[in-house]
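During the reporting period the student researcher (J.K.) took over the structure-prediction task from the postdoctoral fellow and processed the backlog of single-chain submissions. One of the processed entries is reproduced below for the supervisory committee.
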Amino acid sequence: MFYYVTGYIAAIKLCCVAHCNCRFIVQQNFVFVMKPLIVLISTFLLCLAATYIIGQPDVNVSGRAAMSLMLAFTAIGHFKFTNGMAMMLPSAIPAKKQIVLATGVIEILAAIGLLVLSTVKITGILLIAFFVLILPANIYAALKNINLEKADNSGNGINYLWFRIPEQVFFIAWVYFFAIR
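J.K. obtained the following structure tokens:
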């Protein structure tokens, strides 16, 4: 697993440095963006191995459990980096901190919903809608150079989107594959 993730990161670095001169690779925010993906994939592989060891390999359960843990992980950011995440919303939007906290709660509820068999499909549909709805905040944050951990304007800027948008599409495809289809 370590070699897979290391290889993936190296490939992204090589592509970005060679093709688009994306200096954001070495900055802290890139690592922050990678953390959910690393949690997702490593949890998936661990769950898949565990279901294989007990004699009932289950790709769907492993995929949902991995997304569930990733959502719980990212929800923590909504409570730990509330001020920075509030900066990701345009000034015209009121109650920014409350929205950030509410979306953290939504992520926790979605994490639970993916684990309850009777709610998996509806949770998947709502989660895809959620992922689509939060993408503009990520785009706005990139345009404004928001660093959500520091709650300032020292972020990676537009280059951040070279990874963030494909990552979001990957998350949507993951949820569709493991929760809806």
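The committee noted the following: Confidence is low (pLDDT under 50) at residues 1-29.
J.K. will present the remaining backlog at the next meeting.
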